[in-house]
From TrEMBL, chain A:
Gene Ontology BP terms: non-motile cilium assembly
InterPro entries the UniProt entry points to: Uncharacterised_TM-17 (IPR019184)
Protein name as it appears in the record: Transmembrane protein 216
Location relative to the cell: Membrane
Organism: Mythimna separata
UniProtKB/TrEMBL annotation, chain B:
Organism whose genome encodes this protein: Mythimna loreyi
Protein name: Uncharacterized protein
Length: 142, 691
């Protein structure tokens, strides 16, 4: 029994992921710059700066994998990579929420770009679920 | 090319996001402004903001436009603008142990110290002038000098800027000695209003404060720290949660050029001091540095604004010459209630006063006499040159009642291309000379840089402090170094100032060399003891305001000279040498203080104890020149808790695992045997399977 799939790629999901990949680059650069600014100007409690740097690195890594899996799954109309991408959205969103609420010093600018990032996550999550549902519906068996 | 296009698109989308948010924010602000017209709504909003400030929501965008308008004038709660609060650049007692080690270095040789100079840590602005013979206040009928005061505003008793006893302190809004009119001069109501709203505000307050000065933009606002998640601190002392509400920006020193015009109204804060010369009204100014240390600029003397400026100037451009000319030609004027309606301005409708010019030398002042005190130069030296000038303006009953200029005369070299002149401006809201006003050194705790309060009386120290007419008897004075020699007078400038570590070295010369050699060492000793005031009973006030301090709480300083090694001497007629053994030549005073919470006031500097210590030395003199270097060390040791903030460490969980957690086989009993047996069988089976 071989699986035959239709072309079910979601254009909106693809656009979102594509934009998100650039936004992630900007987010990474700006957050590093803000981190340097804060490290110079304000005093951090013991290990807090390193903790935040570690969380940020993990967040970026998870984001890269999530976007990669999302795009790969979407273009190839495969639900498994998209499913993992959806799963990775959870730690990624938690990481963004950490920078939005719990990091040591929160700048107003960080409020904005973390909110935008969360918005991306929410939209991508919605479209990813739609995509998975569509793929599941249109799956044909010989 | 492709990537750049995509990047541009991404940034464009972000920009749109920001613009939309900004628009939404502005929309919210305009709505809120409309609501703020109603008092109750304002209260609700302020309460709301308070709650948000304490528990901020991550996605909440703060809107502080309304607050920003009123917050720009917010000043720190502690304002010490009075003259008695001289700026202290030194005085921190951190690392006192090191300082003590350095100060107690005994390597200084007496013979080497021929040109010892006093170790001055800062220049003082407060003078103890002997003004008993000079009356520079006009004698007036009592009825005419009674101020038209209205009932005073009631403030809380704790007022740490109230440092002049029974005299209104400038810019001290809580001083009950000030009348309503004087409070209005200080703009107290505006400040308190701003402070109240400051509490309700959150976010980047500092940015909002400086918005007008720096021309703040949305971009600055974005770099504000809006929330901090610092861990709990171990330190007992309270610290501001900096940098909450701070942002980083280059300083903008651009100053606006102001034009001044005589408005015929009463003096207000920051108004220039007006002079009248031959019917022409102009403002009084004084030299100031513009871009370097040279006196290239002139700035107006602003009403109620204390100034202290130091700059370099050529001899012919010294300010004293300019002042002498101005004081002869012009009078200081104050607008009165009749002035506003007058078209011709002269002394009939203005309050005019002449300048009082005093010449001072070594703490003594007298009326400036042009004949005796005129500056003159010989080939090398110029005499009667005032490099230090003090302006004092006394404002009382809504007009300037006295304007005094003090020239601190000294001799200078004529060949010097540039001279450094220092000009100070002081304002007092009093009708009597500041020399006769009792100055507190803190309220109630000591303020750094202000004199330590001492009493030389045997009892009733507090009563004596407030009744004593001479300021010298309220201060702890030590011999002063004048041209290398020890001078001890009541006008001495060498007083102990709180928080200022100081070493004074000077040479004492024994003048009675012709007298009998038999008791010479003892006589020298007695004179040194007198010079160091060791024969006086000194008590130190633990607080800067000795009000309501019982005699028992004053710290009594006693040095029992008799407990020291006895002094004795030896005279060798052949070598003409006098040997004095155990001669006291060094005094060390160590103040132990702490920042305490006492008398329901927090963070007050209190002197806890004082250690008075003398050191004796064996010294040989040539009988023709009996002189000795005397050293006085004053040190302040802070015994408060360390100011370093310690953040709480990582959580530590004490988990007690059973002993056999990693090796769950008991050592004894039947189980042990059976377990070993089971393990052995397992091993055997595995080996069999492997084969």
């Amino acid at each position: 029994m071989t699986k035959v799939t239709n072309v079910n790629s979601s254009l909106a999901y693809e656009i979102l992921l594509y934009l998100n990949s650039f936004y992630l680059g900007m987010f990474f650069v700006c957050e590093v710059a803000m981190g340097i600014l804060k490290a110079i100007n304000v005093s951090y409690p013991e290990n807090a700066l390193w903790t935040e740097a570690g969380i940020f690195s993990a967040l970026c890594l998870v984001e890269v994998v999530r976007i990669f899996l999302g795009r790969r799954g979407n273009l190839a109309s495969k639900k498994v990579p998209v499913f993992f991408s959806v799963m990775l959205t959870i730690p990624s969103a938690i990481g963004v929420c950490y920078f939005l609420i719990y990091q040591t010093y929160i700048l107003r600018l960080e409020y904005i770009w973390c909110a935008v990032m969360l918005m991306f996550h929410a939209l991508e999550l919605a479209f990813a679920i739609l995509f998975i549902v569509t793929v599941c519906k249109h799956q044909q068996y010989e | 090319m492709k990537i750049i296009t995509y990047l541009a698109f991404t940034f464009l989308s972000i920009l749109i996001q920001f613009c939309v948010m900004d628009f939404i924010q502005e929309k919210i602000q305009s709505d809120e402004t409309a609501k703020l017209d109603v008092t109750t709504q304002k209260q609700i909003l302020s309460d709301l903001l308070k709650n948000i400030s304490s528990k901020p929501h991550a996605l909440y965008y703060r809107t502080n436009d309304v607050m920003s308008r009123s917050l720009k004038n917010t000043s720190p709660s502690k304002i010490y603008s009075n003259s008695s609060m001289s700026d202290v650049t030194l005085g921190t007692t951190e690392g006192t142990t090191t300082i003590l080690d350095v100060l107690y270095d005994e390597s200084t040789s007496d013979t080497e110290a021929t040109t010892e100079t006093t170790t001055e840590l800062y220049t003082t602005t407060t003078e103890f002038d002997n003004l008993t013979e000079i009356t520079f206040f006009e004698t007036k009928n009592k009825s005419s000098i009674t101020p038209s005061t209205t009932p005073k505003i009631k403030f809380s008793l704790h007022c740490d800027c109230n440092l002049l006893y029974k005299v209104c302190d400038i810019n001290c809004c809580c001083d009950q000695d000030c009348s309503d009119y004087e409070h209005k001069l200080f703009l107290c109501h505006e400040t308190s209003k701003a402070e109240t709203e400051n509490k309700a505000a959150d976010g980047c307050i500092s940015h909002m404060l400086d918005e007008h000065r720096y021309g703040g933009s949305m971009l600055d606002n974005l770099f504000c720290v809006v929330k901090t998640n610092l861990p709990s601190k171990r330190s007992i002392r309270k610290y501001d949660d900096v940098p909450m509400g701070t942002y980083y920006k280059w300083r903008n020193d651009e100053q606006k050029q102001k034009s001044y015009e005589f408005k015929k109204t009463l003096y207000k804060q920051a108004d220039p001091i007006w002079l009248l010369k031959n019917g022409i009204i102009y403002y009084l100014d004084f030299p100031a540095p513009m871009v370097n240390n040279y006196c290239t600029d002139r700035i107006p003397i602003a009403f109620l604004k204390e100034e202290k400026i130091t700059c370099n100037v050529k001899f012919k451009d010294l300010e004293m010459f300019n002042i002498l000319k101005t004081s002869e030609e012009a009078m200081v004027i104050s607008a009165t209630n009749n002035t506003f309606n007058s078209t011709i301005l002269n002394c009939t409708n203005l309050h005019c006063i002449n300048w009082t010019i005093l010449a001072c030398e070594n703490g003594l002042c007298w009326n400036y006499n042009k004949t005796y005190n005129e500056a003159s130069c010989t080939e090398d030296v110029c005499v009667n040159i005032a490099l230090k000038i003090d302006y004092s303006f006394y404002y009382y009953d809504m007009k300037i009642v006295n304007a005094t200029i003090k020239f601190h005369l000294q001799n200078t070299s004529h060949v010097l291309p540039l001279l450094m002149q220092e000009i100070s401006v002081h304002f007092y809201l009093a009708n009597k000379s500041i020399d006769h006003v009792i100055e507190l050194s803190g309220n109630p705790g000591y303020v750094n840089g202000l004199p330590v309060i001492a009493s030389y009386a045997k009892s009733n120290h507090t009563v004596n402090f407030f009744n004593n007419t001479s300021g010298a008897w309220r201060r702890m004075l030590f011999p002063e170094n004048r041209n290398g020699l020890c001078v001890s007078t009541n006008t001495s400038n060498n007083m102990v100032k709180f928080g200022v570590n100081k070493r004074t070295k000077c040479r004492y010369i024994y003048s009675h060399t012709k007298l009998s050699k038999k008791n010479m060492c003892r006589n020298i000793q007695n004179e040194i003891i007198g010079l160091l005031r060791l024969n006086n009973n000194i008590s130190i006030s633990p607080f800067g305001n000795p009000h309501n301090i019982a005699d028992d709480n004053w710290i009594n300083l006693i040095v029992d000279i008799n407990e020291q090694e006895p002094i004795y001497g030896e005279y060798n007629e052949n070598t003409l040498k006098l040997y004095c053994y155990n001669l006291i030549n060094r005094l060390s005073v160590t103040f132990m203080f702490a920042n305490v919470n006492e008398k329901s006031y927090t963070g007050q500097n209190k002197i806890l104890s004082v250690k008075y210590e003398v050191t004796a030395k064996n010294i040989s003199f040539n009988v023709e020149d009996i002189s000795i270097v005397i050293t006085v060390d004053v040190n302040f040791v802070d015994l408060s808790k360390p100011s370093i903030v310690e953040y709480a460490g990582n959580p530590h969980i004490n988990i007690y695992l059973p002993r056999d957690f990693f090796f769950p086989f008991p050592h004894n009993g039947c189980l042990n045997l059976s377990n070993t047996f089971i393990v052995s069988i397992y091993c055997f089976v595995i080996l069999l399977l492997c084969k």
